[in-house]
Amino acid sequence: MTLAFTQVAVIGAGAMGRGIAQIAAQAGSQVWLYDTQADAIAKARDAVFQQWDKLQEKGRLTPEAVAGHKSRLLAARSLQDLAGCDLVVEAIVEKIEIKKSLFTDLEKVLAPTAVLVTNTSSLSVTAIAAALQRPAQFAGYHFFNPVPLMKVVEVIAGLKTDPAVCQRLTEFARQMGHTPVQAQDTPGFIVNHAGRGYGTEALRIVSEGVADFATIDRILRDQVGFKLGPFELFDLTALDVSHHVIEAIYHQYYEEPRYRPNVITAQRLAGGVVGKKVGEGFYKYADGAAQVPAEPPVPVVDNIPPVWVSPRAARRMELLQLLKDLGAHIETGASPSPEALTIVAPLGFDITTVAVVERLDPARTVGIDMLFEDASTKRRVLATNPATRIDMRNAAHALFARDGKAVSVIRDSGGFVTQRVVATIVNIASDMCQQRICSPQDLETAVTLGLAYPMGPLAMGNRLGPDSILEVLFNLQTVYGDPRYRPSPWLRRRGAIGLSLMHTEEQ
To answer: In whole angstroms, what is the distance from residue 221 CA to residue 26 CA?
Structure first.
């Protein structure tokens, strides 16, 4: 195998730089690690050497391989030591002026054929390259922490980047054991852009008083299959990183409502409550373990009232069968009796709106989220409205928990929790395709590898039905009057004519 780059420099000896240096050396390149702090280089090399030693102990690397890797990871004392490198990867602080200054200095040292790349996560590749004499040799090369485990890298062409440079970087990514995805030079590229829907919509839900952090995390893990809830994820990545990315993308897109930040993260950042690394974020941590409040117990209800299901309920036949299996007494009249627990299952609408439109007694009306098939979820989510009686809320909770499945009861919300978050994720991903930021295939790959979603956002939209996602978004717009929920043309058009969200037009 002929390596795309044989002499590689990595500038910045933090966690990201160490990871990039490790996989480049493992691929067979000679790697020079440089940092303005000499002790940081020594610590980084020691950390990487320890990783290789552990892999040897586990039988994943031979002693010969480890010795070879170590021999290829060298310390650079100055930028002059990098003169012979054909690739330089920058992984330093996210400040554009510092990056621009570094690359200007590097151009004076390196050969004209050398490729310069930035690992920036939120800055414009084109803007960083603006001061260079050879912007055609400059690109974005965005890895994710921890680099050896996160097997995806975004290859970003600036406005003047030579396509051949991106081709070499793509090839080198594969040689390092990573999956490359191509992205346009837009705020957040693919992963950080696509990830805006998850946390920002969850923050919006909390700010409305719909549910607390732990409840929202439980719902999105158990209903959708996310490995971490949004607030668990915020605590892991830390708000001193996440909040700045949220704000950067929002402002770089000129205050696009879909990416609107939330005062909750700004306030917590100001107070130093940034996440697990400081022992407190959205959760408090003891010995590294989150202190999660216990779920409310299932209420004890001696007599469950008869149940009437709205004829407009989503998945109505499935819901009726579920109630039958749970042993409910189901009313079949055109309207509920005065004693009946009234169940609605809207898409996008809140329970209050449904009760008013369908002329139901709000005091006896409870909603259930039926976006996903009940059999595919580990949790059911019920929603009350401001007028729902406690006895009706408790009866609904007890009834839907009869078979042992977890039940969360939240306050009124357009689209419950899952509908809002999933629809936002799918909508943002669809608009990224509409903007031609990346191909649908690369988007799906980047999100599943970079964010560990249970499936790509477009696949998620296809599974639930683009028409259902559209209904959620249109109805959320009605409830909230907020342009953040306006459907992307990509989603609206494909949903209208029954096409897959992965479908691209013939050229």
So the answer is: 35
Read off the pLDDT of residues 398-417 as tens digits, 9 standing for 90 and up: 999 999 999 999 999 999 99
CA distance linking residue 424 with residue 487, whole number of Å: 9
Q: How confident is the model at residue 314 (pLDDT cuts 50, 70, 90)?
A: very high
Residues 6+ apart with CB under 8 A from 196: 188, 246, 249, 258, 259, 428
Per cent of the chain over pLDDT 90 is 97
Paired tokens of 480:
């909230």
Per residue in 181-213, pLDDT (tens digit) is 999 999 999 999 999 999 999 999 999 999 999
Question: Which residues of 80-195 form beta strands (DSSP E)?
Answer: 87-90, 115-118, 138-142, 152-157, 179-184
Distinct helix (H) and strand (E) counts, the chain:
20, 16
Give dist(CA 385, CA 393) in Å, integer.
10
SS (H, E, C) 320-382: HHHHHHCCCCEECCCCCCCCCEEEECCCCCCHHHHHHHCCCCHHHEEEECCCCCHHHCCEEEE
The structure tokens 């039988």 sit at: 59
Q: Cα–chain-centroid distance for residue 47?
A: 29
| Positions marked catalytic | 121, 142, 154, 192
Where are the domain boundaries for CATH 1.10.1040.50 in the chain? 193-291
Lookup result for tokens 């996160």: 150
The domain covering 7-185 belongs, at the CATH homologous superfamily level, to NAD(P)-binding Rossmann-like Domain (3.40.50.720)
In the DSSP assignment, the letter for residue 296 is: P
Residue extent(s) of CATH 3.40.50.720 domains in the chain: 7-185, 307-410
Give which of 49, 486, 502 is closest to 256, Cα–Cα: 486
Please tell me the distance from the alpha carbon of residue 490 to that of residue 466, in angstroms, as a whole number.
10
To the question of domain 307-410 being in CATH 3.90.550.10, the answer is no
Model-wide pTM > 0.85: yes
Contact 60, 33 (CB under 8 A): no
Query: What's the CATH code, domain 193-291?
Result: 1.10.1040.50
Strand partners, 75: 33
Strand order through the sheet with 7-11: 73-75, 30-34, 7-11, 87-90, 115-118, 138-142, 152-157, 179-184
The CB-side HSE value for 396 (13 A sphere, CA atoms) comes to 28
d(CA 89, CA 53): 25
